[in-house]
Amino acid sequence: MSQLQAIACCGEGAIAGAALPLLGWVWAPPADYYCQTLQTDRNGARRVRRFVAMSGSRLGRLETKIESYMADGKYYEAEQLYATVCSRHATAARFADAIQVAADGSRRLLQLNQGQAGVKLAAQVVRLLDQGKLALDDHYKQLIIDTFRAHSDPQAKVSFMKSAIKWSIGHGSKSSLGEPSFHLALAEHYADAGQYGDASKHHVKSGDYDGHCAVLARWAEKVFPSEVDLLVARAVLQYLCLENFEGARHILDKLVNDDRWASRLDTPLIRFCQFLLETLRRDASPLFQMLRSKYAASVDRDASFKNYLDHIGATYFNLQVAGNGPGGMISDLMSSLFEAPSA
């Protein structure tokens, strides 16, 4: 078995540790000590790893230097020192401290319109969360959302949140689609930018049904009256593809019963959606197929609806669709709903 001999040196003195098993051994170096580890394998080959555990006083001096750079407008130098402090914290496995420094530095720089420097530190936040294998909790949810909102560049802002959504999967998110509050923040950003299609896709994963209705209502004001039912039907089908029957029902009922849209939603397509929900409640495969045939003309108004319905048929009634392998149209469409977004 490989062995590990630890030597901690301070000045000219040395404290030598006994040979310890490599596996399962954890050692935290004292602050201000120069440390090295010697790993010896069965063949006698050795690898040396050296690092410095930085003391609180040295960190304090770096933080003072950061404040000096910020006051002098030397933002690039400040960002470099922020990164150094983060790295030292991470080296000592103080990931919570490293993340807080990166987030605070990022927000300060972004608020001063130092986009490039702030964006770099923001990206560090997600990398450190992943590196430290930290679990998503309320503190980190708010930290990520605050950092997201501090961005001014739309592309960098979206990229940051998509990275955070991807990280959240498997790190404490209750949803396999990523943290709902992150999807909500991204949906609100898209809606404010008038990108209602992208906003709707993330609202479907946010759990905020009333907020989604509000976005659909804003979107409905921008399209032809004859297209309003398409917006609602698309959202209903997306919820059903994600097996969120409650969301589909809420969206449909609230908008159909809204006096502003009631007349525009009195269409065959909306009636199809209403019948579809009842069919899914009954687990009636023949009725599902009959509905698709009867309302084919309405469904064909949007090319994506057929693919959504194929997926719904496979999910709820185990109806197989020929030619739905990887790279197929249905597969590609579902990937946009189910897979974590690429940063």
UniProtKB/TrEMBL annotation:
Keyword vocabulary terms for this entry: Cytoplasm, Mitochondrion, Transport
Subcellular location: Cytoplasm, Cytosol
Gene Ontology annotations for the cellular component aspect, listed alphabetically: cytosol
Family, as annotated: Belongs to the GET4 family.
GO biological process: protein insertion into ER membrane
Pfam families: GET4
Name of this chain's protein: Golgi to ER traffic protein 4 homolog
InterPro entries in UniProt: GET4 (IPR007317), TPR-like_helical_dom_sf (IPR011990)
